[in-house]
């Protein structure tokens, strides 16, 4: 499911980027081990592939923010999954899909009624409940200037 993410410098790149990858705390469904985050070099390529603005000098900070955000998202999912701890004490992530251009119901309500407006990103996380059921969590990410 993951696209090829090269570790070689891009033609437009002005500096060398780190190629080290960080292992997440998020367990992979059907495999031993956890999901692995992209390196700054791979993240830079991913932004270019998606025709997004990419500043090589900022990649370390961008990847750090990305990883922290995903870890916090997983923690929030686990908080909800505690409600099902009897039937599945160890949920895992089957897959996730970035759907930035698709507005969720929550995103629509925010756009219509909230000062936050539309989310800058959306991820659909598909969580495996110990082989019994797959559950989708729709997570909208906002740039909330009023949040502390």
UniProtKB/TrEMBL annotation:
Tell me its EC number(s), please. 4.4.1.17
Q: Give me the reactions it catalyses.
A: holo-[cytochrome c] = apo-[cytochrome c] + heme b
Q: Which PROSITE patterns match?
A: CYTO_HEME_LYASE_1, CYTO_HEME_LYASE_2
Which Gene Ontology molecular-function terms are recorded? lyase activity
Q: What is its main location?
A: mitochondrion
Q: Where in the cell is it found?
A: Mitochondrion inner membrane
Question: What does the UniProt keyword field contain?
Answer: Heme, Iron, Lyase, Membrane, Metal-binding, Mitochondrion, Mitochondrion inner membrane
InterPro entries named in the record: Holocyt_c/c1_synthase
Annotated region Disordered: where?
A: 1-31
Output the PANTHER family linked to this UniProt entry. Answer: CYTOCHROME C1 HEME LYASE
Q: Which family does it belong to?
A: Belongs to the cytochrome c-type heme lyase family.
Q: Which function does this protein serve?
A: Lyase that catalyzes the covalent linking of the heme group to the cytochrome C apoprotein to produce the mature functional cytochrome.
What name is this protein filed under? Holocytochrome c-type synthase
Instruction: Please name the source species.
Output: Durusdinium trenchii
Starting at the broadest rank, the lineage of the source organism is: Eukaryota, Sar, Alveolata, Dinophyceae, Suessiales
């Amino acid at each position: 499911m993951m696209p090829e993410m090269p570790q070689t410098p891009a033609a437009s790149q002005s500096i060398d980027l780190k190629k080290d990858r960080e292992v997440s705390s998020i367990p992979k469904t059907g495999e031993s081990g956890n999901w692995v985050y992209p390196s700054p070099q791979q993240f830079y390529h991913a932004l270019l592939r998606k025709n997004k603005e990419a500043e090589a000098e900022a990649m370390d900070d961008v990847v750090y923010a990305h990883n922290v955000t995903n870890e916090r998202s997983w923690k929030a999912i686990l908080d909800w999954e505690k409600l099902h701890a009897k039937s599945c004490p160890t949920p895992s992530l089957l897959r996730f899909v970035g759907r930035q251009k698709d507005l969720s119901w929550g995103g629509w309500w925010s756009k219509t009624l909230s000062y936050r407006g539309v989310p800058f990103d959306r991820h659909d996380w598909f969580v495996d409940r110990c082989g019994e059921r797959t559950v989708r969590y729709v997570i909208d990410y906002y740039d909330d200037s009023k949040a502390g």
